[in-house]
UniProtKB/TrEMBL annotation:
Molecular function GO terms recorded: metal ion binding; oxidoreductase activity, acting on CH-OH group of donors
Keywords, alphabetical: Cytoplasm, Lipid biosynthesis, Lipid metabolism, Metal-binding, NAD, NADP, Oxidoreductase, Phospholipid biosynthesis, Phospholipid metabolism, Zinc
Organism domain of life: Archaea
Keyword Cytoplasm annotated: yes
Gene Ontology BP term (one): phospholipid biosynthetic process
PANTHER family attached to this UniProt entry: GLYCEROL DEHYDROGENASE, GLYCEROL DEHYDROGENASE 1
Keyword S-adenosyl-L-methionine: no
Species annotation: Methanobacterium subterraneum
Protein name per Swiss-Prot or TrEMBL: Iron-containing alcohol dehydrogenase
Gene3D superfamilies: 3.40.50.1970, Dehydroquinate synthase-like - alpha domain
Amino acid sequence: MDFNRVKLPREIHSGPGVINETGSICRDLKLKGRVLVASGPRTMKIAGEKVIESLQDHDFGVETIIIKKASMDAVHEVQDHMGNMNAVLGVGGGKVIDVAKMAATQLEVHSVSIPTAASHDGISSPRASIKDQGGSVSLEAEPPMGVIADTQIISQAPFRLLAAGCGDIISNYTAVLDWKLAHRLLNEDYSDSASALSLVTAEMLIKSAGDIKEGLIESAAIVVKALISSGMAISIAGNSRPASGAEHKFSHALDIMAPEPALHGEQCGVGTIMMMYLHGG
């Protein structure tokens, strides 16, 4: 008999100022001792320092590392810094969070996702996009144990990042169409519940499109909720099918071919238009 195991974040916290509760949240997650805070050069100043202060206020020992790119070298660097620490907190954009997730997965320790922008659904998903010599590859990873999304900080990120997050969510439409096609032609496993969640997430985002504006906490909250929901659809399916189809392959091709690739979500959004045309939509 086949069994399906769904892995999801244990706790999700979002709202303005919630980053200041990081230490308390990590205590609630039963984390203790020493932890590693992984962040980017800019996001360490924007959010990482707040995370460190909150952790230290709750008696955590804290080490830090700066992540500059989402590569296996960066994953190995995080692993080398871990020592006997039992958790890594990824504070930053998608690259930082993906590296933290992958490193934690390989070391069999916990990770916590603390996004500073809502640019793609890796915030909560069990996947990590890591670059190698042939471009980006999507690898299976353990989902973060917790997600702490401070909508005040996210709302202050460049609006282009929020728009990219919307593009990543809208691509769910063609991803599900591709999944249905693979199920029909190749007898690939298909999950009605995962596809339904994926599509509802995209539909809700489109209905709220008029409310998504630059600098608004409410706008950041809408997109964050959608990205987390999309990540959960991936967890339910046990693969990336609900949120990644040919439009993502198009994006990965651009990563390899384009002299200066655009943001992941921007490329997926353009790819969605192309693939929807091929589906007759």
